[in-house]
Amino acid sequence: MAKRVLCKFFAHGACLKGEHCEFSHDWKDPSNNICTFYQKGACAFGSRCRYEHVKASRAQSSGSSSSANSHQSLAFDSAPAHPSRTASSGVALVPGTLSELSAFSSPFLPPPKPAWSDSLDDGDVDQNEDDDVGVGETRSARPADRAICSFAAAGNCPRGEKCPHIHGDICPSCGKHCLHPYRPVEREEHMRTCEEKHKHLEALKRSQEIECSVCLERVLSKPTVAERKFGILSECDHPFCISCIRNWRSSSPTSGMDVNSALRACPICRKLSYFVIPSVIWYSTKEEKEEIVDSYKARLRSIDCKHFDFGNGNCPFGTSCFYKHTVKPGSYVWKFHRPPPRRPPPRRSDIVQMDALYQMFEHLEELEDYTPGDLDIEGLNPLEMQFLLMQLGFDPSDSSDDELNF
Amino acid sequence: MVDFARVQKELQECSRDIERSGIKVVPKSDGNLAHLVGTIPGPIGTPYEGGTFQIDIALPDAYPFEPPKMQFTTKVWHPNISSQSGAICLDILKDQWSPALTLKTALLSVQALLSAPQPDDPQDAVVAQQYLRDYQTFVGTARYWTESFAKTSSLGIDEKVKRLVEMGFPESRARSALETVGGDENLALENLCSG
């Protein structure tokens, strides 16, 4: 009896038990190709699962009578999830008849409705059962309920013409037989994701060729993963790797280079850009660039601004800050509805303060290094330290210069 | 730390294009890519035509994020180039530097500077004044300087090698001696005799 269900491992050509296997190694026997996770209610693979996603009654129809016990238990397993089900006797009865019936007639045809969607109130049972059986016989051939062959979908079905499953239509993007001919929603879904994947791959392929104009290397061939990223300038379309463009923008404005006219400008066209967007992919159209920029900004918006500090700090960017300004109850902004006052700038250090500000602008651009609420005091340079002290309420000009020049 | 991978690439690119641009960049000594020597031909239609000008290039540690330090080693009579030190007054070598510029493009700009002097922003006040007040004399001086300083070095080096070989020196040694002294035949002879 047990021999009647086709061995899963045998079907994949990898059963180690050979003739001692308790399952059948005969291709003619029906396979039990039902996803057990789906039976329990959650299969992580979703529509991509190689096993069939049908409910318990489907299992009964395709299984053999010997496995009726396990199917029953399956049906029982799902019972607690449906408290409306007053008695599982209906299910317990159905498998017997159904499996007996289907084992001979049409082992692969599932009944039209999953068992747990049946209303099993005693009063309805008879009617329902009539419905189920009646419709099951007529509608069980509904092709939309049949799964497509996963071998064919993966590229090649060894059973070819003789395969009992439907072979899907060819997807124009991936070229595999993975479009279900009778499930339009699934079809659409697959075509859409497939096209997106295809586009992404194409873009990635194009991006491989692109060189950084500063280090003259292909950006995606740089030695470390962190370096294999483009730094997109908001105002022009010249490609750089993220490390090069950040390096350039943060290089100290010595030798008379002006921050705004030289460092913040594109090294090639000298157009001014106020921010750099990291991206693993280079774009080819304006829309693609917009998409990259928008998703980057959306990502930043979900991170709390460390300058704003939940309403206790003073963010130099104010309302145009890319990061999230969450006002915590009890914070300064929460109490007074305005940012905390800045300390008067220390004497003789207007320029220094501007420099400190610029440093912070640059740090804001470094998304990866950004850890909210984590002020790395050790890593601050004297200017930032001074700025920080200012924020905290110390007047750095009170202390001697030596203390600041660590 | 100088980005030597980039410098290497620039040198390759430059040598590939040497026929068209005439611009040459080679390391001053083997194995040290931070110190280079560039050579540019004098632009045609200027008093510098026919001359070959050598430029000493020192790459700062932050190259390419800082401009290379360039200085003429060949003496030039030009309002924006010091006739004494060879210092060049050119914005892209100072505040207008961009990391997208390369040694070759910078040398091309220097070459362009030779054909388009900017006497209003001079490096050498004497030359600039002469340029503005007495252009003819300026052209004459510039041409004379080109003849006497920019032509001896590499022109007819084969002839000089030949003459040294006739004096009894092996060809390879004669050639290397000429190269080390920058093409001066007498210095090369001295060098060969002493070494």
Automatic annotation (TrEMBL), chain A:
<feature type="region of interest" description="Disordered">
    <location>
        <begin position="60"/>
        <end position="89"/>
    </location>
</feature>
<dbReference type="InterPro" id="IPR001841">
    <property type="entry name" value="Znf_RING"/>
</dbReference>
<feature type="domain" description="C3H1-type">
    <location>
        <begin position="29"/>
        <end position="56"/>
    </location>
</feature>
<keyword id="KW-0479">Metal-binding</keyword>
<feature type="domain" description="C3H1-type">
    <location>
        <begin position="299"/>
        <end position="328"/>
    </location>
</feature>
<dbReference type="InterPro" id="IPR013083">
    <property type="entry name" value="Znf_RING/FYVE/PHD"/>
</dbReference>
<dbReference type="InterPro" id="IPR017907">
    <property type="entry name" value="Znf_RING_CS"/>
</dbReference>
<keyword id="KW-0808">Transferase</keyword>
<keyword id="KW-0677">Repeat</keyword>
<dbReference type="InterPro" id="IPR036855">
    <property type="entry name" value="Znf_CCCH_sf"/>
</dbReference>
<feature type="zinc finger region" description="C3H1-type">
    <location>
        <begin position="143"/>
        <end position="170"/>
    </location>
</feature>
<protein>
    <recommendedName>
        <fullName>RING-type E3 ubiquitin transferase</fullName>
    </recommendedName>
</protein>
<dbReference type="GO" id="GO:0061630">
    <property type="term" value="F:ubiquitin protein ligase activity"/>
</dbReference>
<feature type="zinc finger region" description="C3H1-type">
    <location>
        <begin position="1"/>
        <end position="28"/>
    </location>
</feature>
<dbReference type="Pfam" id="PF18044">
    <property type="entry name" value="zf-CCCH_4"/>
</dbReference>
<dbReference type="GO" id="GO:0000209">
    <property type="term" value="P:protein polyubiquitination"/>
</dbReference>
<feature type="domain" description="C3H1-type">
    <location>
        <begin position="143"/>
        <end position="170"/>
    </location>
</feature>
<dbReference type="InterPro" id="IPR041367">
    <property type="entry name" value="Znf-CCCH_4"/>
</dbReference>
<feature type="compositionally biased region" description="Low complexity">
    <location>
        <begin position="60"/>
        <end position="75"/>
    </location>
</feature>
<feature type="zinc finger region" description="C3H1-type">
    <location>
        <begin position="29"/>
        <end position="56"/>
    </location>
</feature>
<feature type="compositionally biased region" description="Acidic residues">
    <location>
        <begin position="119"/>
        <end position="134"/>
    </location>
</feature>
<feature type="domain" description="C3H1-type">
    <location>
        <begin position="1"/>
        <end position="28"/>
    </location>
</feature>
Automatic annotation (TrEMBL), chain B:
<comment type="similarity">
    <text>Belongs to the ubiquitin-conjugating enzyme family.</text>
</comment>
<feature type="active site" description="Glycyl thioester intermediate">
    <location>
        <position position="89"/>
    </location>
</feature>
<dbReference type="InterPro" id="IPR009060">
    <property type="entry name" value="UBA-like_sf"/>
</dbReference>
<protein>
    <recommendedName>
        <fullName>E2 ubiquitin-conjugating enzyme</fullName>
        <ecNumber>2.3.2.23</ecNumber>
    </recommendedName>
</protein>
<dbReference type="Pfam" id="PF00627">
    <property type="entry name" value="UBA"/>
</dbReference>
<dbReference type="GO" id="GO:0061631">
    <property type="term" value="F:ubiquitin conjugating enzyme activity"/>
</dbReference>
<keyword id="KW-0067">ATP-binding</keyword>
<keyword id="KW-0808">Transferase</keyword>
<feature type="domain" description="UBA">
    <location>
        <begin position="156"/>
        <end position="195"/>
    </location>
</feature>
<dbReference type="Pfam" id="PF00179">
    <property type="entry name" value="UQ_con"/>
</dbReference>
<dbReference type="InterPro" id="IPR015940">
    <property type="entry name" value="UBA"/>
</dbReference>
<dbReference type="InterPro" id="IPR000608">
    <property type="entry name" value="UBC"/>
</dbReference>
<dbReference type="GO" id="GO:0005524">
    <property type="term" value="F:ATP binding"/>
</dbReference>
<keyword id="KW-0547">Nucleotide-binding</keyword>
<feature type="domain" description="UBC core">
    <location>
        <begin position="2"/>
        <end position="151"/>
    </location>
</feature>
<keyword id="KW-0833">Ubl conjugation pathway</keyword>
<dbReference type="InterPro" id="IPR023313">
    <property type="entry name" value="UBQ-conjugating_AS"/>
</dbReference>
<dbReference type="InterPro" id="IPR041974">
    <property type="entry name" value="UBC27_UBA"/>
</dbReference>
<dbReference type="InterPro" id="IPR016135">
    <property type="entry name" value="UBQ-conjugating_enzyme/RWD"/>
</dbReference>
